[in-house]
Amino acid sequence: MVFIGDEIARCAPAPSNGMEQRMQKRRRFKQTQSLEERLAEVAKMLRRKAEMLPQGRLRDVAERKARQVDTASHLSQWLRSPGLRTPD
Question: What single DSSP character describes residue 28?
């Protein structure tokens, strides 16, 4: 009997007691800007890109992505607010 993922399981190394020591450490770094600031930059870049495009599908896609990024920023801000109240 074959299950989904078996082809991956055959490639995986056999588990051992010291496997944690051999695993590669994740490279971590500290963000210098908040998520909201980074999202605002992305939205601004998308709007500038949309302004340079002619009317049509590509421009609409860029504008829609900018609105989605704005929505993500507002949701993040709302989730960080105390008591999950809507932010001012």
Answer: -
